[in-house]
Each structure stands twice: as C-alpha cells, then as structure tokens.
Amino acid sequence: IIGIICIAFMLTGAFTLVYQIYYIVLLDATARGLKHPKLWGFLAIGGNNSSGILMYLIGRHRYPVIQMSDTAQNETRRRKKAAGVSLAFIATGACGLCLCALFPG
Q1: What is the pLDDT of residue 14?
Q2: What angle separates helix 51-59 from helix 37-45, to the nearest 10 degrees?
Q3: What pLDDT shows up at residue 103?
Q4: Among the four residues 44, 63, 69, 85, which has the most C-beta atoms within 10 Å?
Q5: How far apart are CA 28 and CA 92, in angstroms?
Q6: Half-sphere exposure at residue 75, Cβ-oriented, CA atoms within 13 angstroms
Q7: For residue 104, what pLDDT is reported?
Q8: Helix, strand, or coil here: 36?
Q9: Which helix (H) or strand (E) element contains residue 16?
Q10: Residue 19: which of 34, 41, 40 has the closest Cα?
Q11: Mean pLDDT of all residues in the chain?
Q12: Res. 49 pLDDT band, cuts 50 70 90
C-alpha cells in the first residue's frame, strides 16, 4: 500500500507541475506580446524530450517583455514556488518507491 501512496505522490506532483509550467509560459508569453499564448503554453508542456519548452525558451528571446503587471509578476512567482513543491512531491514519491523496491514486505 505504501507503493500506491508513493505513486499517487508522483502523479500528483507530475500533473501539478505540468499545470504550473503551462500557466508560467502563458503569463510570460502574454507579457512578451506573443501571438496565441495558450498555444505556446500547450506546446511547452508537450513532447517527450522537453522540446516544446526548449522551443519556447529559444524563440522568446526575440520578444522582450512589453508589459507585465505586478499582479502577473506575483502570480508567476507563486506558480514557480508551486512548481518547486510539485518537484518535491515527485522526488518524495520516487524515493518512497525506491525504498519499497529495496525493502519489500
């Protein structure tokens, strides 16, 4: 049952991490004035080898930040912290699964 809890931790962390990355990219793309910021958000979370986020990070340098309100800056900071918590959930679940594999029963 501990293994199932660890898998739940990992899945929760993974889903919330994807959600946070989507919104961070959405806020950044909106502040830079890119066309179709929601599409950029979906592209950033897609791909097996992180090609979407890399494409966004490379492509965004041509667009300086035009306008980002204090509210959007605070929201970005909050989502970055939440992404860190999501990574902690993933790491906790992975460590728990490793311990379950090393010490079965």
Answers
A1: 94
A2: 140
A3: 87
A4: 44
A5: 29
A6: 16
A7: 80
A8: coil
A9: helix 2-32
A10: 41
A11: 92
A12: confident
Sign of CA dihedral 9, 10, 15, 20: positive
For residue 104, the SS3 value is: coil
| CA–CA gap between residue 35 and residue 60 (Å, rounded) | 11
> Which pLDDT value is given to residue 38?
94
What Cα–Cα distance (Å) separates residue 34 from each residue in 28, 59, 68, 74, 77?
9, 10, 13, 20, 20
Residue 57: what residue type? L
16: Cα separation from own chain's centroid: 7
Alpha-carbon span 33 to 68, nearest angstrom: 10
The dihedral through the CA atoms of 86, 90, 95, 96 has a sign that is positive
Q: How far apart are CA 86 and CA 6, in angstroms?
A: 13
For residue 13, pLDDT over 90 is answered with yes
**Residue closest to 41 by CA, chosen among 4, 32, 85, 105:** 32
Angle at 38 between CA 28 and CA 24, to 5 degrees: 35
